[in-house]
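Entry 14. Ran structure prediction on the chain below.
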Amino acid sequence: CYDSGSNCGIVAFSDGGDSDTGKVFRVSIESDNTLQVGSAATFHSGATAEIAITYLPTKMMSVVAFSDDDNASNAGQAIGVRVNYANNMLAVGSEVTFESSGAKEIAICEVRPSDYGQLFYPSVEDAVQGKIGAGYHTFVITHRLSDASPYRNQAYQGYLNISRNSDALTFPNNYVNIDNSASNQCAIAYDPINQMMLMSWVRSNDGHL
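Output, C-alpha cells:
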C-alpha cells in the first residue's frame, strides 16, 4: 500500500526463507529515481498467509490482515504498522484476532465514514449499497470462512485507536455474512463519494460473479 504521510510504499509479505514468517518493509523512490528499501520488521513470528494491507491516512498508519498458518485453525489476525519518524523504521503493534478459524482469501480496505451506525448487511444489495461505519480510522476486512459448510464470505469492521501514536485495533461488532452460498474470492473497495463499500465475489455453486 502507499503511505501518503511518509511518501513511501509499505510491503507486507511471507518470508519463504524464514519459515514463512510475516514481515513488512518500507520502500521509497529517491531523487535519482532509484528505490530505497528499508529493513524488514516482523509482524508475525509464525507461518503467515493470505496477507492483505491497507493504509489509513486519517491515522497515518497501515493495517495488515493475515491468516495465522502457524495455528492449525488458520485464525484471522490483524495488526497495525506505522513509520517511526525518529528513525524512518517500521514499528508494529499487537496482533488482534478477528476470526478464530478458517480465515482465507483475506481482503482489506480503509473506510472514511460519517456518522453511520454499525456494519449491518441484511441482504447482498445492502452489502453493496448500504452505509457503513462509525467513528474514526475505520477499515473493513473480508474473508472466506473455509471451515464453514458451505464456505462463505464474511466481513468485519475494525477501528484503529484514536489516541496519538496508538496502534491498538478493535473489532466492536460481530461478523456479517456477505453471501452464504459457496462464495469466495471477494474483492473490496471503498467509494468515498457515495460512502459505500463495493464488493465482488464468485459463487462457486452456480458460477456467478
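The CA atoms of residues 113 and 133 lie 6 Å apart. Will compare against last week's run tomorrow.
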